[in-house]
Amino acid sequence: KAGVTQTPRYLIKTRGQQVTLSCSPISGHRSVSWYQQTPGQGLQFLFEYFSETQRNKGNFPGRFSGRQFSNSRSEMNVSTLELGDSALYLCASRAQGGLTGELFFGEGSRLTVL
Amino acid sequence: AQKVTQAQTEISVVEKEDVTLDCVYETRDTTYYLFWYKQPPSGELVFLIRRNSFDEQNEISGRYSWNFQKSTSSFNFTITASQVVDSAVYFCALSEAGGGSNYKLTFGKGTLLTVNP
Questions:
Q1: Which residue of B has its CA nearest to A47?
Q2: Half-sphere exposure of residue A28, counting CA atoms within 13 Å on the CB side?
Q3: How far apart are CA A98 and CA B2, in angstroms?
Q4: From CA A45, how far away is CA A103, in angstroms rounded?
């Protein structure tokens, strides 16, 4: 069974640009959540989607957005990039909503903003 | 608000030593879930254990064991006879069951464990 797949794995952008990250959950998983990991702030929750609906959002500015498609694949977008957006962005999936299932993480997309 | 504290930023041990990683949490909910994850250099977070607030039984899985004490709001993780392959960053996390909080995990800052041969 394939795991959570995130693309791209690495990318470099400059300030002011925008970026889109993609996440393909484990087949059959309907819940996808995103986390940002930085050395200073650690792992922080961005948002969670279930059946194309955002159910919870973390404390991030509106420049961070996401969506989920009917096949459960998810994308997150960061507009007007800032240096502080440099981070490892982790996607996680589980079979259903809530905490009834184990959360599986991908290897992340490492974003560097210059 | 929920909070997880891992006071140990880094721990270094020699192979075969036992090591305990501390985790202290704060929550106002009576129903919550606690987790431990391992993050190897590849970046992927690997699930180790989930425990709900009503189950204070300690758990052992091979060389891993967990001690959950609600009285001290702690959920500590012990590796017995550590091995070099145990070297990683370990995260403790908390999720509250109420409202919309059960869709997110609040993580501690992590403990970098280095096991030297």
A1: B104
A2: 6
A3: 17
A4: 13
CB–CB contact B103 A42 (8 Å): no
Rounded Cα distance between B43 and B30, Å, is 32
Cα separation, A64 vs A60, in Å, equals: 7
Q: Which helix (H) or strand (E) covers residue A94, if one does?
A: strand A87-94
Under a CB-based contact definition with an 8 Å cutoff, are residues B15 and B116 in contact?
Answer: yes
Q: Does B98 touch chain A (CB under 8 A)?
A: no
Q: Which residues of A touch B44 (CB under 8 A)?
A: 3, 105-108
Condensed to tens digits (0 to 9), the pLDDT of residues B48-105 reads: 998 888 888 888 889 999 999 999 999 999 999 999 999 999 999 998 876 666 678 8
How far apart are alpha carbons B101 and B99 in whole angstroms? Answer: 6
Choose among A67, A66, A81, A75: nearest CA to A111. Answer: A81
What residues of A are in contact with residue B47 (Cβ under 8 Å)?
Answer: 102-105
Q: How far apart are the two ends of chain A, measured CA to CA in Å?
A: 37
Cβ contact A75:A23 at 8 Å? yes
